[in-house]
Automatic annotation (TrEMBL):
It comes from Streptomyces bullii. This is GNAT family N-acetyltransferase. GO terms for molecular function: acyltransferase activity. Its EC number is 2.3.1.-. The lineage of its organism: Bacteria, Bacillati, Actinomycetota, Actinomycetes, Kitasatosporales. Residues 3-160 form the N-acetyltransferase domain.
Amino acid sequence: MSVPVRRAVAADAGELARLRQLSLTCPAVPWSRPRDVPDGPWVKECQQVFVAMLHGTDTAAAFVVDAAPGRVASCAVGFLLPRLPGPGSSKPFNGDISTVATDPEFRRRGYARAVVTALMDWMAVRGCKRISLSASPEGEPLYTSLGFVYDEPRMTWRVQ
């Protein structure tokens, strides 16, 4: 079964901010009680940043799976970071995956895999040499299965 993934647009900013807040609740100790992440002005600020980010820049992207009209089930957000050419590569960017989140009621359906894969593909096409992320203990098996390796202190996947 193919998971329908689409690139997020500015109208998704509220849902992306909500899922970012959800991602920050990931417990420090694997499979324990989620951390409390309070609401506050930062959530609205995050939403505003998403609006700006998704409204014209080609150095940031988010990919989503919809749960229903106006509701996102899963997302992956990432940035292209300029890099200087070196002897090993003249590729212009490194990628950073900053947020991956799936609403609890939609987990175990392959949504996170689908949005992360779409984001990795988008980054690779744009000239990334390396894509990195910080993984929760629960997320590590997914990222390992996608080819990321643990590279202190972050997991990294290298574009071939």
